Amino acid sequence: MTRIARVSALLAPVLLTALALAGPAAAAAPKPPGKHAKDASVLPKQWTKKHKVRGAKADPDDDGLTNWGEWRSRTKPKRHDTDRDGIGDAQEDYDRDGLDNGSEEDAGTDPARRDTDRDGIRDGDEDADGDGLTNAQEARTGNDPRDPDADGDGVRDGDENAGVVQAFDGTTLTIALARGGTLSGVVDAASDVVCEDEGYVEEDLDAGGEAEEWLDDEDGAEPFGVKARLAEEGDEDAADDEDWGEEELGDCTAALVPGSPVREAELEDGVFVVLDLLSTGR
After folding, report:
1. Distance of CA 105 to CAs 48, 51, 100, 108, 179, Å?
2. CA 93, 96, 100: angle at the middle one, nearest 5?
3. CA distance linking residue 221 with residue 177, whole number of Å
4. pTM greater than 0.85 (yes/no)
């Protein structure tokens, strides 16, 4: 056996022992933040004790960031605007990647790192769910950056004319599409308009002015919907009136102001037959 072979034979057990000892430590090393961050359930005890908070999903200052999001954003969970610059913590984009802190939490990316997965693409320009909309475009249009079909209708979010309201004169609506270009058409009583407030349906009108489903209120105790509300107010006749839908269409189109997110729009013969709106943005 040569000298080199003898030395190698002697070193082999030492190397194997070292690797065995290093194995558990390597396995226990923390994973880089970002992936599925929204699903995390454990916060550092020192941080929770310092800020006197409990629960990763709680939002004690009601600023749109959970405690988990506040920790990762380096913001204070009991102060709506940590740096007091007039911009809420959820709307801040400290790493300047095109996503604010709230959207970073939705996307599962790191609000303190411009390129969470270090692939050379800013977090805002990523399309993690492969639906044709970048994370930033999903945020602007009120879609889920981790669900390619947010409304579950079998059509990718990127193929539903998502965008923001560019202009509306009471009749003609123009949408600035997230993927580029514009889409214009008429909004009238034949339009199926759905208004949502941060994800909760407020009004749902079909072409005939009929509401197929009533939603419960926050406590799940009372029916919520146009007819339900009219009936509760004691106006049974108005609740059954065929033209109530046209009246409520006016309420719904109040959401059609420049900058309002449009999650879905379908145009037929110059008329918007489907409009899915968010009445308020983040």
Report:
1. 18, 20, 9, 5, 23
2. 25
3. 38
4. no
Task: Please give the Cα distance from 76 to 233 (Å, whole number).
Answer: 43
Distance CA 87, CA 139 (A): 17
List per-residue pLDDT tens for the chain, 282 residues long.
444 444 345 444 544 444 444 444 333 333 334 444 444 568 999 999 999 998 999 999 999 999 999 999 999 999 999 999 999 999 999 999 999 999 999 999 999 999 999 999 999 999 999 999 999 999 999 999 999 998 889 999 999 999 999 999 989 999 999 999 999 999 988 888 887 764 434 344 343 344 334 343 344 433 334 444 445 555 545 444 444 444 444 456 677 889 999 999 999 999 999 999 886 544
Domain boundaries, the chain: 1-25, 31-126, 161-280
Q: Which of 279, 272, 265 is nearest to 161 (CA)?
A: 265
Q: Could you give the C-alpha distances from 145 to 149, 174, 276, in angstroms and in order?
A: 10, 24, 17
How far apart are the C-alpha atoms of 182 and 160, rounded to whole Å? 13
Residue 103's identity, in one-letter code, is S
